[in-house]
């Protein structure tokens, strides 16, 4: 009997081949050792079969313990070596075992996970050689898009929820400018001014640097006109890139990513991003907001039989491209801390050097497809990659470039927390389609989603922009009324009257201005409910 096509829900686990045949049954000493090392007691994901010589050994399965997915992982390899299909193999089995899955689909390659695969004699034979009984099936999938760009339920967030730290990163601000932006958010938070979209943020910056509003922040440092100008210019460029569609309401609740289907399997949330690939900073910042938002809301669970959610970041180098040290520190902290919340993170990229060293050190599960060494830099990267694996009988500098498509070097975390021996592995075939899903099939899934009714249409309610616009209108009206009332009483003899009136007006102060009073009344509706922020600057929601 061979490994079933997918890991089953915990209530009815299916034993893998490693537990069904004696390790010594016709296996070499090395194959028997690998079989024993990867024969985990709990639920597991079947990665494939050990390769000896040039052929897979079906009786020597290479598995990944389901409970160890929250030790994070790396799937790396050159273009065309099969790393995206390996992602698909792990993701569909994790979902079948009851773990929710989130995949960021940069190129549209992963949409096929929602469609059953097509059988063929070649595929069946390939699967059998890897100890796999291939069955055509699809994962329960929900498609998402950023701000409605593309096919999927729109994911949006408000500027307030996004927070000053991530906003500073995406606007490429320096430390001084980031500090000033933090003051702006603090003012909005404490005065109940909703920053829902980018025009709200722009309007508030303009108000706080105007003659009328610049005194508001004077007591806590204020904002220089030069700094405000830089922030506004960066904001304009950000808007011009199309980012404005990602900010607004209804704001997406990340708890939707933790749903399971009626049969107990995890739902695969597939974020379609082909139109965002040219804006890597937006992609990386938005994805880190998701992680930060989940981190603040999820309870501590420690070590569990299976994680609640596993993220797969395809083209992971886009997360770190041009990132500041402060932002990298946040990523490192997230990866370190979110494990105890029952969340696993897998990065999929070409070489391990695409991932910062401190992040790489947290990735306990490693699946390395072929790398090519065409240049001196390639050769250096190859040696560095080989050096990150545990010592083994393989010469990895020689083995890694020689791997065929669909083959990989594997080491994972065992159930006792130690790395398993390195195994050259022929990776199993996905059971869902290896081709992108047809557009009409994706649209049908989106139209049938209950979340489409909740998030499909953007909403623009009153927020900082509207409040400040009304303030300006009321100020203009008040000034006109004052001018009309004073015009008949003005006498030439009263040469000092204008000065007296100006002095009296100054004595009243900013807060006696009727427009400002209206502005503060609107803000006062939420006094006492100041927004508090998480470790990563995102908004803490009260549930």
Précis, in short:
The protein is of the alpha/beta class and 543 residues long. 38% of the residues lie in helices and 13% in strands. Helix 5 runs antiparallel to helix 9, helix 6 packs across helix 8 and helix 7 packs across helix 17.
Question: Mind explaining what this structure looks like?
Answer:
With 543 residues, the protein is of the alpha/beta class. It has two domains: 29-148 and 250-456, P-loop containing nucleotide triphosphate hydrolases (Rossmann fold), CATH 3.40.50; 159-246. The protein contains 19 helices and twelve strands. The chain has helices spanning 29-37, 83-96, 121-129, 159-162, 164-170, 175-190, 198-208, 225-240, 280-297, 317-320, 325-337, 357-360, 376-387, 396-402, 439-447, 450-455, 464-486, 497-508, 514-524, and strands at residues 44-52, 55-65, 73-76, 100-105, 141-146, 153-155, 268-272, 309-313, 343-349, 365-368, 407-411, 423-427. A twelve-stranded mixed sheet has the order 2-1-12-11-10-3-9-8-4-7-5-6. A hairpin with a 2-residue loop joins strand 1 and strand 2 (55-65). Helix 5 (164-170) runs antiparallel to helix 9. It is elongated, with a radius of gyration of 29 Å. It comes from Brachybacterium phenoliresistens. Residues 492-510 have a biased composition (Basic and acidic residues). Residues 1-26, 476-513 are annotated as: Disordered. Residues 59-542 form the Helicase HerA-like C-terminal domain. It holds the Pfam family HerA_C.
């Amino acid at each position: 009997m061979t490994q079933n096509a997918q890991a089953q829900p915990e209530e009815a686990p299916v034993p893998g081949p490693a537990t069904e045949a004696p390790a010594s049954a016709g296996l070499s000493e090395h194959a028997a050792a690998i079989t024993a090392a990867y024969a985990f007691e709990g639920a597991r994901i079947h990665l494939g079969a050990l390769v000896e010589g040039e052929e897979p050994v079906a009786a020597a399965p290479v598995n990944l313990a389901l409970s160890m997915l929250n030790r994070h992982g790396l799937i790396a390899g050159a273009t065309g070596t099969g790393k995206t299909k390996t992602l698909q193999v792990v993701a569909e089995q994790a979902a079948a075992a009851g773990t929710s899955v989130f995949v960021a689909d940069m190129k549209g390659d992963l949409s096929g996970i929602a469609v059953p695969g097509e059988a063929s004699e070649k595929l069946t034979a390939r699967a059998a050689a890897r100890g796999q009984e291939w069955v055509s099936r699809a994962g329960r999938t929900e498609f998402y898009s950023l701000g409605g760009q593309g096919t999927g339920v729109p994911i949006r967030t408000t500027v307030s929820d996004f927070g000053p730290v991530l906003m500073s990163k995406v606007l490429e601000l320096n430390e001084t400018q980031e500090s000033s932006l933090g003051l702006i958010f603090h003012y909005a938070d404490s005065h109940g001014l909703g920053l829902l979209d980018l025009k709200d943020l722009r309007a508030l910056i303009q108000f706080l640097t105007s003659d009328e509003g610049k005194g508001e922040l004077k007591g806590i440092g204020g904002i220089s006109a030069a700094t405000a100008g830089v922030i506004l210019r960066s904001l304009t460029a950000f808007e011009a890139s199309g980012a404005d569609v990602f900010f607004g309401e209804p704001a997406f609740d990340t708890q939707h990513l933790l749903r399971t289907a009626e049969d107990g399997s995890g739902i695969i949330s597939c974020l379609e991003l082909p139109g965002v690939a040219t804006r890597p900073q937006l992609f990386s910042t938005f994805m880190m907001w998701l992680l930060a938002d989940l981190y603040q809301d999820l309870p501590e669970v420690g070590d569990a039989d299976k994680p609640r959610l596993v993220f797969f970041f395809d083209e992971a180098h886009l997360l770190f491209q041009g990132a500041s040290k402060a932002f990298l520190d946040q990523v490192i902290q997230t990866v370190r801390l979110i494990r105890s919340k029952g969340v696993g993170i897998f990065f999929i990229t070409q070489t391990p050097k695409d991932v910062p060293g401190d992040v790489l050190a947290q990735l306990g599960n490693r699946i390395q497809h072929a790398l090519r060494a065409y240049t001196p830099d390639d050769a250096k990267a190859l040696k560095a990659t080989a050096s990150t694996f545990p010592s083994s009988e393989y010469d990895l500098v020689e083995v890694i470039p020689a791997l065929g498509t669909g083959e990989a070097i594997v080491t994972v975390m065992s159930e006792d927390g130690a790395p398993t021996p390195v195994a050259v592995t022929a990776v199993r075939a996905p059971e869902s389609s290896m081709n992108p899903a047809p557009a009409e099939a994706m649209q049908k899934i989106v139209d049938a989603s209950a979340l489409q009714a909740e998030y499909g249409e953007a909403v623009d309610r009153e927020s900082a922009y509207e409040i400040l616009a009304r303030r300006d209108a009321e100020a203009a009206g008040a000034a006109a009324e004052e001018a009309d009332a004073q015009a008949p009483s003005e006498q030439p003899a009263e040469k000092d009257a204008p000065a007296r009136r100006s002095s009296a007006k100054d004595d009243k102060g900013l807060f006696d201005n009727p427009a400002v009073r209206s502005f503060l009344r609107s803000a006062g509706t939420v006094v006492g409910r100041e927004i508090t922020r998480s470790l990563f600057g995102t908004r803490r929601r009260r549930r």
